[in-house]
Design brief:
Number of strands: 8
CATH topology of the largest domain: OB fold (Dihydrolipoamide Acetyltransferase, E2P)
Order of helices and strands: EEEEEHHHEEEHHH
Structural class: alpha+beta
Distance between the termini: 49 Å
CATH superfamily of the largest domain: Nucleic acid-binding proteins
Oligomer: single chain
Number of domains: 2
Number of helices: 6
Strand order of the largest sheet: 1-2-3-5-4
CATH class of the largest domain: Mainly Beta
Length: 242
């Protein structure tokens, strides 16, 4: 079936000297893999830049039922980036976001709410000019809303202790060791309450950011079966320590 869809590039790997296998999260068919032949050839219809991580694309593809690989008929930019390709810091964050999405999105069916969240978040991230160093933390936490384990934060919670297993704040530590203690739990609570326009008001230092990133990844491991090691946090930690 030939269909048109918006998409978000999550991963690419070389298949041969001139071809790629690309994973794209599509608006109409969920996560799908495409074999793109001759990308690096002189007469290729598809520029390699179209397959950079988190590129927002429009595509026409031949979606074949019960097949692992599909073929692109047309591919173009949906929303052109103005800053991401030119910023080392933003590219480092994009690497983390794409790896996180690749590890958590498995469905091959449409999920309009999830697609809309990711698409809008990437658009915002490209347009924002400053005060975005905490965006990866905000995005990772907001993504849990769509994955079904967003932290439960009551109006009176002050962030004393966050129980990573139960996803709730407590007055005292639970019997197990999967929790965030104060004062880091207070920063975690502030992140839970934040909006994109508030990120510049969080006031985290680099040490706090590194610890929050570690705990958020721990949170994912506890709630997503098979969530294994990530490569990008090490690169992020280097960026945050510079």
């Amino acid at each position: 079936m030939t269909d048109k869809s918006r998409g978000i590039v999550l991963h690419q790997v070389k298949y041969s000297d001139s071809s790629l296998i690309v994973k794209i999260y599509t608006e109409t068919h969920g996560l799908q893999s495409f074999l793109v032949k001759g990308v690096y050839g002189r007469h290729s219809r598809f520029r390699p830049a179209l397959f950079q991580l988190l590129t927002l694309v429009e595509l026409v593809a031949d979606f074949r039922p019960n097949k692992d690989l599909h073929f692109l008929k047309e591919l173009g930019v949906d929303v052109p980036f103005t800053s991401i390709p030119f910023s080392v810091q933003k590219n480092t964050i994009v690497y983390f976001l794409s790896e996180l999405l690749l590890k958590t999105i498995k469905e091959h069916e449409a999920n309009p709410a999830l697609f809309g969240f990711i698409h809008q978040s990437i658009e915002w991230f490209d347009l924002v000019k400053e005060n975005y160093v905490d965006f990866h933390l905000f995005f990772a936490l907001e993504l849990t809303r769509h994955l079904g384990f967003y932290p439960k934060l009551e109006a009176g919670d002050k962030g004393e202790v966050f129980d990573l297993l139960e996803g709730v704040f407590r007055k005292s530590p639970p019997a197990h060791f999967h929790y965030i203690a104060s004062p880091l739990s207070e920063s975690f609570a502030a992140l839970c309450r934040a909006k994109t326009d508030d990120l510049d008001k969080l006031g985290f230092d680099n040490a706090c950011r590194r610890k929050l990133l570690q705990e958020i990844i721990h949170f994912y491991r506890l709630h997503i079966p098979g969530f294994n090691e990530m490569k990008s946090p090490d690169i992020l930690r280097e960026m945050l320590s510079s």
